[in-house]
Amino acid sequence: MSVSPSLDGPRASAAASRKTHLTDPADAAPPGPSGASPSSPPGPDEISRIVPRRHPGRWLSAALALLGLAMIVNSVVRNERFQWSVVSQYFTTPAVLDGLLLTLWLTAAVMVLGFLIGTVLAVMRLSVNPVLRGISWGYVWIFRSTPMLVQLLFWFNIGALYPTLGIGIPFGPEFLTFETVNLFGAGLTALIGLTLHEAAYAAEVVRGGILSVDAGQTEAAAALGLSRRRVLRRVVVPQAMRSIVPTAGNMLIGTLKGTSIVSVLAVQDLLFSVQLIYNRTYQIVPLLMVATIWYVAVTTVLSVGQFYVERHYARGAARELPPTPLQRLRRQAAALAGRLRTASASDAKPL
């Protein structure tokens, strides 16, 4: 009984000293200049001006990039060996424009036919029939494993393997026969070779787009009593297009540039037309620049079209559509004007 007071005494004295320290008016924070309590928010005169953070490295890297770009542009524009006068002379000649039209026609025909065949192959690949799946897989395997140039040369020399082709009953009589030499010309060979090669890649693009659609979408549509054809047309395809369009746009641009390979078959596309001119004039570099500028111009137009098609199919997936280049430019101009007004207002404010 005599030990308890000795233990509680120091504890009580320490608690009393802490309480006295916390409630000491000398340790309290002084009131604000207007007599407000310390917890009250500061007035507008007490808020210091917010200075944005500086980014010297960002500005330095941008300046170096612009300097390098200016040096490259200057070396191209002021280099007399490009012979820009010759480029402007042959840029719109009838031979070049005819080659450009053939290139555009070949690109459009190959893409349309390639995706039609590729869609059929993709549906076959997704079928429950093992024979159809095997045929589709084998087609894609063969045509993706063989270089495009080899395929074009193979189809160009198909007459060496099959001098005549016929339609009839297998292992029986033929009703119609024709010679392959008279059928497969350079233009048709290019169209067949590019289309079959493109169909193999289009099949995988379409199959990947269909598989990207959630299975719950088709299950919900089937629960509503929709037919498989209507489910594919109204539910699966619109959602699959979000995955198909970007890859299909890249394939379209690749096909446009890939058509230049048909020049080995003497098909008068854009590149072959340019080659015919510089073989006669020996002005190789300026004529190649003519073809390059046309390819860049057409690719730019196709890229703009791809942007708007992607934006169209993104309506159901994004809450807000991505801004167009014109809208983005307007927003940047409005933001810059707002910064300028803020800076002028802060400079005009008296200290």
Question: Can you describe this structure in just a few lines?
Answer:
This protein has 351 residues and is mainly alpha-helical. It has helices at residues 4-22, 56-77, 84-90, 94-125, 130-145, 148-156, 158-161, 180-183, 186-211, 215-223, 228-258, 270-281, 284-313, 325-348, and strands at 164-168, 174-179.
What's the topology here?
Elements: H1 4-22, H2 56-77, H3 84-90, H4 94-125, H5 130-145, H6 148-156, H7 158-161, E1 164-168, E2 174-179, H8 180-183, H9 186-211, H10 215-223, H11 228-258, H12 270-281, H13 284-313, H14 325-348
Antiparallel strand pairs: 1-2
Helix pairs in contact: 3-13, 4-5, 4-9, 4-11, 4-12, 5-9, 6-9, 9-11, 10-11, 11-13, 12-13
Could you characterize what this model shows?
The relative contact order is 0.09. Residues 1-29 and 32-36 have low confidence and may be disordered. This protein has helices at 4-22, 56-77, 84-90, 94-125, 130-145, 148-156, 158-161, 180-183, 186-211, 215-223, 228-258, 270-281, 284-313, 325-348; strands at 164-168, 174-179. Strand 1 (164-168) and strand 2 (174-179) form a beta hairpin. Helix 3 packs across helix 13. It contains 14 helices and two strands, in the order αααααααββααααααα. The protein starts with a helix and ends with a helix. It has 351 residues and is mostly helical.
